[in-house]
Write a structure and sequence with these properties.
Elements: H1 3-13, H2 23-33, E1 39-42, E2 48-51, E3 59-65, E4 70-76, E5 81-87, E6 99-104, E7 107-114, H3 123-126, E8 136-138, H4 144-150, E9 156-159, E10 164-166, E11 170-173, H5 176-195, E12 200-206, H6 209-212, H7 217-226, E13 230-238, H8 247-250, E14 260-264, H9 269-281, E15 287-291, H10 299-302, E16 310-318, E17 326-329, H11 330-345
Parallel strand pairs: 3-12, 3-13, 13-16, 14-15
Antiparallel strand pairs: 1-2, 2-12, 4-5, 4-9, 5-8, 6-7, 6-9, 7-8, 10-11, 11-17, 14-16
Length: 356
């Protein structure tokens, strides 16, 4: 396992960066990329790019989004409590009692997410799922004026958490989705640079995936600018190897079971075949997932860019997605980077990407 990959992941996970406010995480990504890339740059949308320096042949895009879900302050009451909305999709149940960092122009402000104690809830209320509107952030302000001196409407926040290791290879952190994919994109590029390549490879840390939906966000704008012939999207997917998971509904995906390759209507069949062969050459057995329509990833914003981009998806099994403690296995990340590097090693200028 590459220690570079582990170090990169930890640095990325500890950098706050909700959708639209990815600056700190993107800075880390570009700093790591500058160690081995011939060119590193960013764009007006907040996407970050790193190239292997090859100018001839097709351009291959490696995309992992660098944003994370977060919170945004939308109201401050006269008692000094902050009310927030989700930046991206939250299950409010996991927010109760969490510590948060509100990212302001004056620096980070600490707070805790509160709700009425269970003793103060009526019996019927105790049985109901909590909603975002039932929660508030307490920053210890004496009143509304004191709170407004520290925090402004539109400031964003993240869960205040520390990335931890569980055993030898399991990592738990707040922003695994999708800093894990952004780290793999960089690691794959590093291996391509070390081995050499006949094609141009550009890793991209895309912005605003968590809020973009079908619009494509940074994935669409970055792919429009690059005009790649092919793209590999690296994102997380739901692991189903924990209690109470329905494999008949969500498939069989295991943390530590290897990278997940997807087959589906939007995914280029030729690339899937070639990635499978690359995995075999590398001695890696992938897991499989079906994607009959949209994938819910940057792929949805890339594959129809301009006149169309041959696009494939490599996913990383993730337990507890969109929670303060998401969990992946570093061995899956390492194997994903190796498959991508092996695939690119087999590409030559003029390589076909037609599905049929």
């Amino acid at each position: 396992m590459s220690h570079t990959l582990r170090d990169t992941l930890y640095r990325l996970l500890d950098a706050p960066g909700p959708s639209g406010f990815e600056t700190e995480a993107a800075d880390v990504w570009r700093d790591v990329a500058s160690d081995f890339s011939s060119e590193v740059w960013s764009d007006v949308h907040g996407n970050s790019f790193a190239s292997n320096g090859v100018e001839k042949g097709p351009t291959i895009m490696l995309a992992g989004h660098v944003d994370e879900i977060g919170l945004m302050v939308h109201y401050i009451d006269d008692d000094g409590f902050l009310f927030v909305r989700g930046v991206g999709g939250w299950d409010p149940q996991v927010l109760v009692g969490q510590r948060v960092l509100i990212l302001t122009s004056k620096g980070a402000v600490s707070g805790v997410i509160g709700r009425r104690a269970i003793h103060l809830l009526q019996p019927d209320e105790r049985k109901k799922a909590v909603k975002m509107k039932d929660l508030w952030v307490d920053i210890g302000a004496a009143n509304g004026d004191a709170a407004r001196e520290l925090v402004a409407i539109g400031d964003v926040g993240v869960i205040a958490s520390e990335t931890i290791s569980l055993g030898e290879s399991i990592v738990a952190g707040r922003s695994i989705d999708d800093r894990a994919g952004a780290a793999v994109a960089l690691e794959a590029l590093r291996r391509v640079v070390e081995r050499g390549s006949d094609v141009r490879v550009v890793a991209v840390a895309t912005a605003q995936e968590e809020i973009s939906g079908r619009s494509g966000g940074g994935a669409r704008t970055s792919s429009f600018a690059l005009e790649p012939e092919a793209a590999i999207v690296i994102d997380v997917t739901h692991a189903t190897d924990h209690p109470n998971s329905n494999k008949k509904e969500f498939g069989d995906v295991r943390v530590g079971g290897g990278p997940v390759l997807s087959r589906g209507a939007q995914i280029n069949a030729r690339m899937v075949t070639d990635l499978t062969e690359a995995a075999s050459r590398a001695g890696i057995e992938p897991q499989w997932q079906a994607a009959p329509s949209g994938t819910g990833t940057d792929l949805d914003g890339i594959f129809t860019t301009r006149s169309g981009v041959a696009t494939a998806l490599i996913s990383l099994a993730n337990r507890y997605m969109h929670s303060p403690n998401q969990l992946v296995d570093l061995r899956d990340l390492d194997a994903a980077a190796e498959i991508i590097a092996e695939y690119i090693a087999g590409l030559k200028p003029g390589a076909p990407f037609l599905s049929n």
